[in-house]
Each structure stands twice: as C-alpha cells, then as structure tokens.
Amino acid sequence: xxxxxxIERNWSLFLDLDGTLIDIVRSPNEIYMPEGxxxxxxxxRNALEGALAIVSGRPLHEIxxxxxxxxxxxxxEHGAVIRYPTGEVDRAKALKPxxxxxEIIRERIRExxxxxxxxxxxxxxxxYRLAPDAEDMVRDLARSVVGDDNKADxxxxxGKKVFxxxxxxxxxxxxxxxxxxxxxxxxxxxxxxxxxxxDEDGMRMARELGGIGLHVADAFGGEPxxxxxxxxxAADLFE
Length: 239
Ligand SMILES: [Mg+2]
Fold this sequence. Notes:
Blueprint: E1 11-15, H1 37-47, E2 52-55, H2 60-67, E3 73-76, E4 81-83, E5 89-91, H3 99-109, E6 116-119, E7 124-127, H4 135-149, E8 154-159, E9 162-167, H5 172-180, E10 189-194, H6 199-208, E11 212-215, H7 216-219, H8 224-238
Parallel strand pairs: 1-2, 1-10, 2-3, 10-11
Antiparallel strand pairs: 3-4, 4-5, 6-7, 7-9, 8-9
Helix pairs in contact: 1-8, 3-4, 5-6
The chain binds magnesium ion.
C-alpha cells in the first residue's frame, strides 16, 4: 500500500511535470494536459500563498506552453533555469554542450528510426521511447560524445527512455534551494514530488531543508492520476 501524507497549508510544493502530474505518452511532443489539472494547480498555488513551483527537465517556454496562460514559479531544464515568483529568471553559469555535438548525434541516430534528439539551452536529450532496441547504442553514443571531448563538466544522466548530456552539479536540488530562499517559499516546509532519476536531487534537497521527498512510484503507486487527485483534494479542502 502506498500513501502520501495529506498536504498542509505550511508546505511549499515542488512538482515535476512528466510522469508526475502528466502521464507519460509515446513522445514528449505528444503530451496533453489532463482536464482539471491547471485549475487544481492555480487553486492550490493560491491556497499556499504562491508557494508552488514546477520543476521539470523541460525548457521554460515548454512549461509555459503546457500551463499557459499562467506563468508558474519554476525550475526548468533540471534546475539550470529558475523563474522566481517575481518573474525574474536566473540562469546557471554552467558549461553547455557544444553545438558540434548536436550534429554528431543527429547524424548517428538516423540509424535508429524512432530515436530523436532534443536540444535545450543547457543540455542535449536523446529520446529512444520509440526505438527501445537502441537503448545500449544511444547510451554508448551519449557517453562517447562526452568522453571523446573530455569535457569534465558535462555528464550523461539517465531518465525514462532518455539519455541526457547535462552540466554536472546543476540539478533539481538547485531549484529547490534557490526558491526556498525566496518569498513566499521561505519558511515553509519544502515538499518535492517526482518520478525520475533527476528528481532524486530535488527530493534530497527538500529533505536536507527539513522537508519531504515523495517518489511517485512509492507514494502514489506510479500513477500521476493519484498525484492529481491528491493535489485536488487539498485544493478543495483549502477553499
Ligand atoms: Mg518526470
């Protein structure tokens, strides 16, 4: 039996998107917003006096596209880009993967139909959900691109059907830390909810700051629908 504690009014919430609030589908581009989710997030954000942030691997403009017209406090690109409640945006000073790597990867993945490459500001993500047999090859490719250039500040991280070349030390924990220092997050208990490897940095930071990290698999049986129901329950209760 899985269980998450009920949301309390003195919490601040840090929520991952894909696989946490939104069901994972065939590819990141086919995603759709579940009915009622945006309404729930807005009501809950109000009840928590604004202390609700989206912390995702997606770029900020994609978070905004999905949650538009609302602009949430956010940690985008796994914490490399932070948007504070004031609207101010902070960008990590970190080494980005060189442009030439995109060319190499784009060329190579043609061999694996279904695999796709996504260029973000701070990272390169290679998705293979539609080319599951290519997993080992995609991993080797990502590692060899990083390894050959010996860029010690960049590393390959694993996610759900994705390998991503990202700056080391720039994590979702950074988003939790920076936002927790800002109003209205300051002084509240940070609670991070996520489903994937990069979320574990966010959970760890929330715990370090006296809060809670909830893994969708453990606390919600792996079901984003149960995360949404949990949020809605609190939004309804707090009204
Ligand atoms: Mg996720």
